[in-house]
Amino acid sequence: MNRTIHVLLSVAVILIVTGTTACRKGEEQTAQTAQENVNAGPQVRFTLMPKEQTGVLFTNSLKEDYIYNILSYWSLYNGNGVAIGDVNNDTWPDFYVTSSFGPNRLYINLGNFQFLDATRMAGVPAPEGYKSGVSMADVNGDGLLDIYVCRTGRAEDKNKTNHLFINKGNQSYKGIPIPVFEDKAVEMGLDDNSTSNYACFFDMDKDGDLDLFLLNHRIDFPDAAKIRLSQAPDGSRKRITTPRNSYESNRLYRNDGSRFTDVTGKAGVASSAFGLSVTPADINQDGWTDLYVANDFIEPDFIYINNHDGTFTDHYHEYLKHSSLSSMGSDVTDINNDGLKDFIIVDMKVNDHIRYKQIATTMQYDRYSILVQNGYGRQDARNMLQLGVGNSSWIDIGQYAGIAATDWSWNPVVCDLNNDGWKDIYITNGYRRDITDQDYTNFVRDSILKTKTITPKEFPDIYDYLKFIPEKRISNFLYINNHNLTFSDQTQAAGLSLPSYSNGAAYVDLDKDGDLDMIVQNFEDPLYIYRNDITGTNWLQIIPIPDQPNHTVLGTQVEIRNAGMRQYLEHNPYKGFLSSSEPLIHFGLGTSTMIDTIILSWPDGQKEIMTQVKTNQRLKWKRGDGKSYTPDKPRGNKPLFEKMPETSKWIHRENEFVDFKREKLLPYMLSAEGPCISIGDVNGDHLDDIFAGNGTGYPAAILLQNDKGTFSDIPEHAFALDAAFESCGSALEDFDHDGDLDLAVISGGNEYPDQAPEYMTRLYLNDGKGQFERASDFPDIRTNGGAVLALDFDSDGDKDLVIGGRCTPNGFPKVPRSFLLKNDQGKFSDVTHDVFPELEYLGMITDIQDADLSGDGKPELVIVGEWIPISVFSFDGHSFKNVTSSYGLDKSSGWWKCVTLDDIDGDGDADLIAGNIGLNHRLLASEQHPATLVSKDFDGNGSLDPIFCYYHDDKLYPYAGRDLMISQLPMLKKRFLKYSAYASASINDLFPKSSLEGSTYLYANTFETRMYKNEGGKFTPSPLPYQVQLSPMYAIIVHDFNGDGRKDILMAGNYSYAETETGEMDAGIGTLLLQQSNGTFAYALNREHGFWASGEVRDLKLLQTQRGQTAVITANNRGPLNVHLINH
After folding, report:
1. Model's pTM, two decimal places?
2. For the purposes of burial, counting CB atoms within 10 Å of the CB of 348, is it exposed (0-12), middle (13-18) or buried (19 or more)?
C-alpha cells in the first residue's frame, strides 16, 4: 500500500531573495560581444486608438467583495481573454472580449478602426460567473466561426459551466451583417463545469474535424506549494500526478461529429496542476499536432507528444533541462528561422533592480532542491526562450536574448511586428495588487492577522483591508528581434510604454494593411487597441481554405524561401494567454517584392509549392492552387562525428555537499569541479588509455583501451585506498625517467577544512604495466587544487609541476596557495618562493597551459582563473616574470574556466582561446562596470563576508536580497528593517566608509569566451560566432576536424551549481567552429555534424583509437565518458 505524503513548500517560511536582475544585456554585455546587433529592420510604431474613434467602451473593472477577493480566490487577478476572427464573413476581423464579472462584448469591425458593439444582438453577453479565456473556431465545420467561453470560480460557485456559442449566420442591422449565436454547449457535450482557464481546438487524430483540449486548474490554492508524493513499501517516493477528482484535471474532448466525447483518461492527459496556457503545435515535426501546457506554481509544464493513436506522452523531462517555475502564457514558434520549434514561456521575474528586491521570490536553495529531488524538475522563476536545436533537445537562451525579466507577465504575443522577416515578442504584464511585496507580507499582513481576522466584523468593507496592499501599474514590453538570438527593448520607442494591469492579448490586421495590430485586455483601464503604423515594408498573408466542409486547415504549415532566408509558420491562433489571434499566416518580407518559393503542407501531410509570388497580398490558398511537391530526400552523408555506443561503464560521481550551507553568500558552488581526464598509453601496448578522476568517496580509474575500441576499468589498489580524495586535475608524464607514464593528481572538493589532508597533491608511479603506486617521498602539498601542468621550465630534461590553487575552503574569496615544484631526477621540491613568487597567491586558478608565445624557443606560462586576468609569465633563466601587460591582457579579468594555446591562424605563433561563463545568465560585467566582489570580515566574527555586486547608474549594489544578506550579517537588520529601504541601498549605504576601508575588491571585466590572435607578441581579440556565448566553456580543443587543412575549434561546458537566483547555465550542447578560408569561424549545427555534449562537461580530450581514428572524449560531471569518432 502506497502512502501519500504532502510536503509544504511554504512561501512565507523559506523565501529568501538571493539576487537581482539589475540591468540587462543591451546595457552591458552585448556592448562587448564579438558580434554587433544586426537588426537593421524598420522602426515599428503603434498608436493607441481612442475610444471616440473606435466606439469600444469596454473596461474590465474588478469589484471585490467577501466572496471574491484576492485572499479568497487566488486567480482573481489573472485576467481575461480576447478572441479574434471574422464572425460575419465580411473579410474584416471582429473580436470578442471576456469580462471578469460583467457581460462579455462582441465587436463587429466596420473598417477604419471603427467597431459596433453587437453583443446583445448576437446573443453572447454571458454576464454570469467569472469568465476567463475565449477561443474562436469553426467547431461544427459549417464555415462560420463559433465562440467558446471558459468560466472559472470558487468551488461553490454554480456559474462555472462553459459556453459554446454556435454561429447560426447573419441578420442585418442597418445594413451591417450581425451574426447570431446559440449556446450549444450542453447539446455538443462541452458544458464542462470544471474551473476552466482556456480551450484550444486542434485535430488530434487527423480525421479532419476539430477536437478540444480544455485547460482546467485546481482550486486548492493553499496547497499550491505542496509537493504530493506516494511512498512505496521499500521507502522510495514518487511524485503524484493523478487528479484527486475529475474536475481539477485538464480535459481532452474528441469530436465525434455532432457531439464531443471526453477521452482524457484514455489519451493519457489526466493531470493535477494549475494550467495557465496551452499551445497546439507540431513540436517534434512528425506531422501530428502536439501540446505545450504551461503550469503555474510547482507543477512542471507538460509537453504532450502525439502518439498517432489517440494518446499522448509527456516528454517534459526528456526535452527540457529546466523550465519556468510559475509558467504563465506560452507560445510554440520558430524564433530564429531555422525550421525548428522554439518555446516561449513567461513568468514573474521583475525587471527593475530595486523593485526586484522588494518582491518575494521562490528561488531559495532548499525549496529548489526539494522540487528537483522529487521529480518536479529544475524550475527557475524567469521567462524562458527554449531554443530548439534538434535531437529532441531544447536549450534556454532567455537571459542571453534579454527577455528573461518582464515583471508579473501573462501573454507573449509572438509575431513579426516590424515586417522584417523575424518574429518579435510583445509581453503583457501587471498584477492588480502587489501581494508579494515583502513589506506588506511581513509587516502589514502578518501584523493584522496576529490581532484580527479578515471578516466583515473587523473590516466592514473588504476594501478597508485591500487598501493596505500596494498597487503599481507596469508597462508592457516590446522586444524586437535582432536576428542573432538577442532582442532590443523597443517599448518606449514604439509607443507602448503606458503603465497598466494588462493580461490577455492577441495580434490581428484590423485594417488589412499588411501589418499586425494588437488588442490588449486590462484591469481598470479601457481595452487597448493598438494600430501598427509601420511603413515601407512588404508582407504576405496566407489563409488556407478547406477543400470540403467540416475539414479543418488548422495545423497547416508554411515555409517561405526568399533571398537566401527561410521563414516557417504553423496555422494556429491559440497561443499566448487566454486568447486567440486572427487565424491567418502572416509573413513580413522587409524590402522583398517577390517571393522565390512557398511550400505549404496541409494537415494530412500533402505538400504544395508556389514560386515567384508577389508580395503585399492576402493569398487564399485552396488545395490544388499550388503544384504538388515532394521534398528531396536528405543526403546520406556521414556526419563529421559519430557517437560510439557505451565504451565504458565508468561514471563520474559527486558526493553530496552544498557549499551554500556553509558559505551563504557564495555566488557559485566550488565543490563540483570534476572530473578531470588525462590521455596516454599507460601499459605499453601502443593504445591510448584514460585516467579519469572521481568525486570524494569514489575511486579514480584507469580505463585501458582494448582491441575492440572499448575501455576496461582496471582495478587500481592505490586508487581504492585514495578514494577519499576528489581528483580535480591530472597530468600523465614520465616523471621518473623509467620509460612509462606516471601520474600527478591534484585534489579538490571544497568541503574539508583548509589544509586538510584530503587536499594533498599525489604522485603515482607506474610499474610499466599500468599499475600505479603512490610515491611516498612526494612533498606534502595541500591546496584545494584547480589546475596542474607538467613542463620542463628549467630545461633540465625533467618534467616539473605547476599546481594552481582553486579556492580556500570556507574562506571565499581568500586566495589559495599555488606551487611550482621542481623535478630533480624524480625528486620534487617546492621552489615557488624563489623561482615563481607571484604564483604563490596569484588567484583562484582554473587552468594552466604553456607555449612559445614570443618565438624565442622558450615556453611562456598562461594561467587563467576567476577574478583574475589571463596572465602570462616568462622564465628568464632564474625566475618567472609577469608579462601580461606587454601581451595586452592586463584588463582581461573574468571567470575563466580554461585556456588553449595553438597556432590557430597558421602564422607560426601561438594564439589563445579562453573559456568563460558566457553571456546567458543574469550577471553583468564590462570594463567600465565590472562585476565586483567586495570582501571583508564586516561583523568581526572571524570569517570573510563576500558581497557580490553589480553596477547600476555608476553605483555599486549587492546582488543578495535582504533576507540572505541579514542571514550572513545580522547587524544590518536594525538599519534595514524594511525591504524597501534595503532594496535601494548601494554598497556604500550598507556599510559606512570606515567599514569598507581595508576591504578586498575583486573584478571581472568580461564573461565572454574569447579568442586572441598573437600579432607579433601582442594579443588582439578576434571575433567568434555569438553561439559561443550561450553557455560556460570548460574545455576547448583546436584540431582540423573536417580535414580541410585549417584548424577548427571544439568547445563544451555547462554549469548547474550557481546560487539559485542565477540558476543553471546549461545551454551548452557542444560548439564546433569551422575555420573559413579567410580565417574567420563559422558556427556548425550539431544536428548536422553529430557532436553532442549536453551534460556538465568538464573536459575534452583527443584520443587515438586502436583503428587509427581520432576520437573526442567528453568528461561529464555526474555522468559517463562519451566517445565521438571523427569521420574524415
Report:
1. 0.95
2. buried
Bond preceding residue 813 cis, omega within 30 of 0: yes
How many other CB atoms are found less than 10 A from the CB of residue 284?
Answer: 16
Say how many C-beta atoms besides its own lie within 10 A of residue 245's C-beta: 9
654 touches 672 (CB < 8 A): yes
892 pLDDT band (50/70/90 cuts)? very high
Cell (9 digits) for 517: 495590430
Averaged pLDDT of the chain: 93
- 114-127 burial string, b = 16+ CB within 10 Å, else e? ebbebbebbbbebe
Beta bridge partners of 724: none
Please choose, from the candidates 1095, 978, 1126, 1124, the residue with its C-alpha nearest in 3D space to the C-alpha of residue 321. 1095
H-only helix segments in 63-114:
none
Side-chain-facing half-sphere of 646: CA atoms under 13 Å = 7
d(CA 590, CA 337): 15
Residues in a beta bridge with 790: 801
**Distance (Å, whole) CA 33 – CA 1006:** 9
Please give the Cα distance from 699 to 2 (Å, whole number): 37
Residues 6 or more apart whose CB falls under 8 angstroms from that of 634 comprise none
d(CA 1037, CA 901): 9
Q: Is the peptide bond before 573 cis (omega within 30 degrees of 0)?
A: no
For residue 335, CA distances in Å to 39, 160, 348, 821, 844 come to 14, 37, 21, 53, 39
For residue 87, the 8-state DSSP code is T
Distance CA(557)–CA(507), nearest Å, equals 19
CA distances from 440 to 76, 358, 498, 978 (A): 19, 10, 26, 10
**Residues 634, 637, 639, 640, CA torsion sign:** negative
- SS3 (DSSP) at 1095: coil
Burial call 692-711: b when 16+ CB within 10 Å, e when fewer: bbbbbebbbbbbbbeeebbb
**Are residues 733 and 739 in contact, defined by beta-carbon separation less than 8 angstroms?**
no
| Residue whose grid cell is 579568442 | 1011
649's grid cell = 561503464
Kindly tell me if the per-residue pLDDT of 5 is higher than 70.
no
Find the helix or strand (DSSP H, E) in which 179 lies: strand 176-183
Largest CA distance in the chain: 105
Helix (H, G, I), strand (E, B) or coil at 366: helix
What Rg do the C-alpha atoms of the chain give, in angstroms? 31
Kindly state the percentage of the chain with pLDDT values over 70: 96
394-420 b/e (C-beta count within 10 Å ≥ 16 → b): bbbbbbbbbbbbbbbbbbbbbbbbbbb
Residue position matching grid coordinates 576496461: 712
Residues constituting the chain: 1128
Q: In sequence order, what are the residues at sequence separation of 6 or more whose Cβ sits closer than 8 angstroms to the Cβ of residue 584? A: 509, 541, 542, 543, 618
Measured CA to CA, the distance from residue 265 to residue 243 in angstroms comes to 11
Place of cell 617546492: 830
Q: Is the pLDDT of residue 19 over 60?
A: no
Q: How confident is the model at residue 32 (pLDDT cuts 50, 70, 90)?
A: very low
**Distance between CA 597 and CA 581 in Å, rounded?**
26
Contact 125, 99 (CB under 8 A): no
Reading phi first (left if > 0) and then psi (alpha if -120 to 50, else beta), residue 891 is in alpha
CA distance to 351, 454, 639, 958, per residue, from 951 (Å):
15, 42, 46, 9
**pLDDT (average), residues 752-756:** 95
Residue 195 gets which letter from DSSP?
-
CB 775 within 8 A of CB 695: no
